[in-house]
């Protein structure tokens, strides 16, 4: 153990390494707190601190009266260049994707939408509120804004498939570029209702601007991802001259 590392952090790291190595498999019960106390020669308080952190991060799940088990693998999504939509990324990981429309309506462009979408005051904007799920569990809550003049009359069918694919197939709009800003936030009561999590759960928050091949802004979205159910992959390519 690194001398600068606390015992709690060491125990957490050890258990996490066993999960990632497959020593503790998905759905498997890990050793009891008593057994872990014996293994690491420490108190239950220290063990519980490590287990609580791993549970909050989505690697473990507690079952009342049964013990602590290895949670299902997090849904992996790619932020770098990819042609794969949400459904494709979920399916390739052996999970069943689902997109549920909560609400779709037309709203006037406020100051924020004017700036993000480069539209005029009070221009009609389609507000599309959705929840994405993997194997029936919510992983993402999203609100997307699309100018009416870009793609008038977006339907429930469009919203519950891939918006980008629908824009291309139904409106001839090809999303050529997205710019994404990512932060960490905590789920409030409103958000926790849709993500089916406890308030205060750490979430990834991503704001996205999508542009077509003429650099017109076609979508602005705000997305919240459960931190215990999702992780992201970012791939970078470097020219040989660097």
Automatic annotation (TrEMBL):
Its Gene Ontology molecular function terms?
Answer: DNA binding; DNA-binding transcription factor activity
GO BP terms: negative regulation of DNA-templated transcription
Keywords carried by this UniProt record: DNA-binding, Transcription, Transcription regulation
Q: Specify the superkingdom.
A: Bacteria
Q: Note the CDD domains from the entry.
A: WHTH_GntR
Which positions fall inside the HTH gntR-type domain?
Answer: 5-73
**Record-linked InterPro entries:** Bact_HTH_transcr_reg (IPR050679), Chorismate_lyase_/UTRA_dom_sf (IPR028978), Tscrpt_reg_HTH_GntR (IPR000524), UTRA (IPR011663), WH-like_DNA-bd_sf (IPR036388), WH_DNA-bd_sf (IPR036390)
**PANTHER family xrefs:** MANNOSYL-D-GLYCERATE TRANSPORT/METABOLISM SYSTEM REPRESSOR MNGR-RELATED (PTHR44846), MANNOSYL-D-GLYCERATE TRANSPORT_METABOLISM SYSTEM REPRESSOR MNGR-RELATED (PTHR44846:SF1)
Q: What is this protein called?
A: HTH-type transcriptional repressor DasR
Question: Gene name, please?
Answer: dasR
């Amino acid at each position: 153990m690194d001398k600068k590392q606390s015992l709690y952090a060491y125990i957490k790291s050890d258990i996490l390494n066993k999960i990632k190595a497959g020593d503790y498999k998905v759905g498997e019960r890990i050793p009891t707190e008593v057994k872990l106390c014996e293994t690491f020669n420490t108190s239950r308080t220290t063990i519980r601190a490590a287990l609580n952190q791993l549970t909050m991060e989505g690697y473990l799940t507690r079952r009342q009266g049964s013990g602590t088990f290895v949670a299902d693998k997090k849904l992996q999504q790619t932020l770098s260049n990819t042609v794969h939509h949400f459904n494709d990324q979920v399916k390739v990981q052996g999970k069943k994707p689902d997109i549920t429309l909560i609400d779709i309506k037309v709203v006037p462009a406020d100051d924020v939408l004017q700036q993000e979408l480069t539209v005029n005051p009070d221009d009609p904007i389609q507000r599309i509120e959705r929840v994405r799920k993997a194997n029936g569990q919510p992983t993402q809550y999203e609100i997307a804004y699309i100018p009416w003049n870009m793609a008038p009359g977006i339907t429930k069918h469009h919203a519950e498939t891939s918006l980008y694919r629908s824009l291309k197939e139904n409106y001839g709009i090809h999303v050529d570029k997205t710019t994404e800003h990512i932060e960490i936030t905590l789920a409030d009561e409103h958000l926790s209702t849709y993500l089916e999590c406890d308030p205060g759960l750490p979430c990834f928050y991503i704001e996205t601007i999508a542009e077509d091949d003429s650099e017109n802004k076609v979508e602005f979205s705000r997305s919240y991802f459960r931190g215990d159910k999702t992780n992201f992959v970012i791939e970078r390519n470097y020219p040989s001259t660097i």
